[in-house]
Structure to design on (223 residues):
């Protein structure tokens, strides 16, 4: 009887150690439960063009921002250089070179040097009207959301992100609008800086894959 109890106990521990996490779509900042964020004010003044990649830093983390491809990107500010539906004066990253607009640029990629468990941002297509936004992590866990791009300047731009996804080292934001383009801007990126503590088996898997995941994100930015 004691042996049976021991076996059952070991089976229960094994089940816990192999627990997996199901990543899910976030459509609000609250869903991310942010512990930190990346504002883009440091890339100003508005209409400043940057080459991919560029480093970013926040209170608890650091990483890189750029256009997957890579191409240049531009710093924008709602109601100053950007006529969209973010909140007035918010700093944005636009996946275009304002001095050499080509259209159909690559997705915006954000690399996290320290893995996070949830992250997302408001997003808007450059062309007004209906669009579909998609966010993917380094493992190609992707989620999409419908939005409407307009010039209201009222903070109504949709929020898209991923939560319950320990070990995020790279996020890719993209859109497809009614014209078939993928020109877009993103607002402040909010993220949860510490993943839910995994059980031992999961922790071992994550630990063995973190360096590769970070490298994968950097490769996606063309580094």
């Amino acid at each position: 009887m004691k042996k049976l109890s021991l076996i059952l106990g070991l089976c229960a521990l094994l089940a816990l150690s192999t627990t997996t996490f199901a990543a899910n779509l976030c459509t609000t900042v609250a869903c991310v439960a942010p512990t930190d964020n990346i504002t883009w004010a440091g890339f100003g003044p508005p209409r400043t063009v940057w080459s991919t990649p560029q480093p970013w830093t926040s209170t608890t983390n650091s990483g890189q921002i750029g256009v997957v491809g890579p191409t240049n990107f531009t710093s924008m500010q709602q109601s100053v250089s950007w006529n969209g539906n973010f909140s007035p004066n918010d700093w944005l990253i636009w996946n275009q070179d304002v001095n050499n607009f080509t259209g159909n640029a690559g997705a915006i990629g954000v690399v996290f040097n320290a893995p996070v468990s949830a992250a997302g941002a408001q997003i808007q297509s450059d062309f007004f009207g209906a669009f579909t936004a998609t966010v993917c992590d380094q493992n190609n866990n992707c989620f999409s959301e419908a939005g409407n791009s307009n010039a209201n300047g009222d903070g109504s731009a949709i929020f898209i992100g991923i939560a319950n996804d320990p070990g995020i080292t790279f996020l890719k934001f993209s859109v497809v609008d009614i014209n078939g383009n993928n020109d877009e801007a993103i607002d402040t990126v909010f993220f949860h800086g510490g993943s839910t503590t995994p059980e031992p088996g999961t922790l071992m898997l994550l630990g063995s894959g973190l360096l590769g995941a970070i490298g994968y994100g950097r490769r996606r930015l063309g580094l």
